[in-house]
UniProtKB/TrEMBL annotation:
Stored InterPro entries: ADH-like_C (IPR013149), MDR_fam (IPR045010), NAD(P)-bd_dom_sf (IPR036291)
A GO MF term: oxidoreductase activity, acting on the CH-CH group of donors, NAD or NADP as acceptor
Name of the protein described by the UniProt record: NADP-dependent oxidoreductase YfmJ
EC numbers for this chain: 1.-.-.-
Organism: Mycobacterium talmoniae
Top-rank lineage group of the source organism: Bacteria
Coiled-coil residue spans: none
Residue ranges annotated for the Alcohol dehydrogenase-like C-terminal domain, each copy included: 9-138
Keywords associated with the record: Oxidoreductase
PANTHER family (UniProt xref): PROSTAGLANDIN REDUCTASE, PROSTAGLANDIN REDUCTASE 1
Length: 187
C-alpha cells in the first residue's frame, strides 16, 4: 500500500514494490490520479481517498490486511491504513505532507494495531542511504531502460511559477514529479 501514489515518490515506491513481486494498491486524490496510478504506473488498484469511506475501501481491496504500507501523507490516511494492518505488517514513514503546513501532527488513534498485529512502524530518510545512491541509481536506470519503471512530470513554466508549484504539492496539482522549467537547456 502506497499513499500519494500518483506523486513523484509514491509512484516510484509502488513500481519498485511491483518489481519486487508485491501486489500493490495506491491511495490518491481523484479519479484522474487513480487512473494514472493503475494505467501509467502499473499498480494493481488505487483508492480515491477523496471519494467517501477510505476504511471501507481498504477493507474491500485488502480483506486480509495490509502487509507493507509506504506512507507519504500521515494524518487520517495513515490512521485508516493502521486500522487495516495484517499480522507482522511493516509501516514505513516517508513523509507527512498532510500536516507540514500546520506543523501539528495528530497522532494516529489506530496505532494500537501495531500492538495487536505485532507490527513495526519505522521512519525512512533517503539521505541515510547516501552510501547506496550509486547502487540505487543503477537499478532505477536499468528498470527504466527495460520499460519496467516509468515516470511522469508536471512541468510549470518560468521562475515566477515556483511558489505555485510548491503550493501545488499541497493541493495535489501534480501527477509525477513537480518541476519548474526556468529556461531552455543551453547547448
Ligand atoms: N523521507 C524521505 O527521505 C523523503 C524524500 C522525499 C520525499 N519525502 C516525502 O514524500 C512525500 C511526497 O513527496 P513528493 O516530493 O514525492 O511529492 P508528491 O507526492 O509528488 O506530491 C505531493 C502529493 O501529496 C498529496 N497530498 C498533499 N496533501 C495531502 C493530504 N492532506 N492528504 C493526502 N495527500 C496529500 C497530493 O496528492 P493527492 O492529489 O493524491 O492528494 C500531492 O500531489 C512528502 O511527504 C515528502 O516530504 C520523503
Amino acid at each position: 500500500m502506497v499513499s500519494a501514489a500518483a506523486g513523484a515518490t509514491g509512484s516510484v515506491a509502488g513500481q519498485i514494490a511491483k518489481i519486487a513481486g508485491a501486489r500493490v494498491v495506491g491511495i490518491a486524490g481523484g479519479p484522474d490520479k487513480c487512473r494514472a496510478v493503475v494505467e501509467d504506473f502499473g499498480f494493481d488498484a488505487c483508492l480515491d481517498y477523496r471519494q467517501g469511506d477510505l476504511p471501507a475501501a481498504l477493507k474491500q481491496q485488502c480483506p486480509r490486511g495490509v502487509d507493507v504500507y509506504f506512507d507519504n501523507v500521515g494524518g487520517p490516511i495513515l490512521d485508516a491504513v493502521l486500522g487495516r494492518l495484517a499480522p507482522k505488517a511493516r509501516v514505513v514513514l516517508c513523509g507527512v505532507i498532510s500536516s507540514y503546513l500546520t506543523g501539528e501532527h495528530p497522532g494516529p488513534a489506530n496505532y494500537v494495531n501495531l500492538l495487536s498485529k505485532t507490527a513495526l512502524m519505522q521512519g525512512f530518510n533517503a539521505l541515510d542511504q547516501w552510501s547506496r545512491f550509486d547502487e540505487a541509481f543503477a537499478a532505477l536506470r536499468q528498470w527504466e531502460a527495460d520499460g519496467r519503471l516509468v515516470h511522469r512530470e508536471t512541468v510549470m513554466e518560468g521562475i515566477e511559477s515556483c511558489v505555485d508549484a510548491l503550493n501545488g504539492l499541497f493541493t495535489g496539482a501534480n501527477i509525477g514529479k513537480m518541476l519548474v522549467k526556468i529556461s531552455e537547456p543551453s547547448g
